[in-house]
Amino acid sequence: MITKLGSVSVKVLDQDEALDFYVNKLGLEKGQDIKQGAYRWLTVRVPGDATTEIQLEEPGPPVHDEATAEQLRELISKGAMGSVVLLSDDVRGLYATLKSRGVNDFTQEPTDHFYGTDMGLRDPFGNGIRVLQPKKVAQGARA
Amino acid sequence: MSREVEQFNRRLLRARDAMDRAYAEPLDVRAVAAVAHVSEAHFIRSFRGVFGETPHRYLQRRRVERSMFLLRETERSVTDVCFDVGFTSRGTFSRTFREIVGETPSHYRQGHGPVVTPTCFQMAGMRPVGPPMADMQSSSFGDTVAAAAP
Question: CB–CB of A77 and B21 under 8 A?
Fold first, then answer.
């Protein structure tokens, strides 16, 4: 039985720039940063939760041949690589914090829905990030 | 692919995001092209090259998707919905809706109830595809002509 999500890969165009954005702007914490030859295993994670990580991965050798890496880079910059959804206890507060840190690539301002409040933004390369503050559900209310 | 191409794509994506965000407002192609820091004609051609449809068509599908949402989830009149999502004439709304969805707004409302999925997935996943670009008649964005230019 699978028990938990361990890590997922987000493709980025530049690992240093990605690390700065995901840690210093978005507020995640740096996880592992291990160099093995040309390959750099770099992760970020929700502060306090070391068991689930986002790997920030640059397309290129040895994992991808140069032609494949080029295609991936194009898809990243078109915003076609999908998005991650993060949870927050205060989406509007985070929105204000991000703005004060100079983040302005919002795809959606904080908006209320029946399931909670969410907002959308993009990382510097085009990847989508959604942040959701789920509506509090009374215990036992869900079947 | 060079770093310049990546950065240009990124600017086009920013302009596309601007349309997603401000779909309900009066948008003209000049303002949207300005987000990408390019001329109108260059914007329309390159947007089509990168995303496979003109900016106008993209905006129409965005507006029609939001109108489908309002028709399903609210009791607002078709006319109110038309203006809510950024169309300025009821005739253009109905014609565009029919072109893209294949039925009239009122018909669509009769056949569909609320959908219980997060709104962001609805926005992305339920956006109508519509007929091929060449078959689209309505363009108040003026890009049908520009896109055809060499």
Answer: no
> CB count, 10 Å around CB of A57?
21
- Per the structure, the complete domain to which residue A20 belongs is given by 7-134
In a domain, A102, yes or no: yes
Helix, strand, coil abundance in chain B, percent, nearest 5 = 65, 0, 35
Evaluate if pTM is beyond 0.90: no
pLDDT tens digits, A22-37: 999 999 999 999 999 8
ipTM here: 0.87
Residues B17, A73: C-beta atoms closer than 8 Å? no
Which of B1, B13, B120 is opposite residue A130, by nearest beta carbon? B120
> What is the number of structural domains in chain A?
1
Query: Looking at beta carbons, which residues of chain A come within 8 Å of B73?
Result: none
Per the structure, the count of domains in chain B is 1
pLDDT tens sequence across B50-62: 999 999 999 999 9
- Domain for residue A87, yes or no? yes
Interchain contact, A73 vs B6, CB within 8 Å:
yes
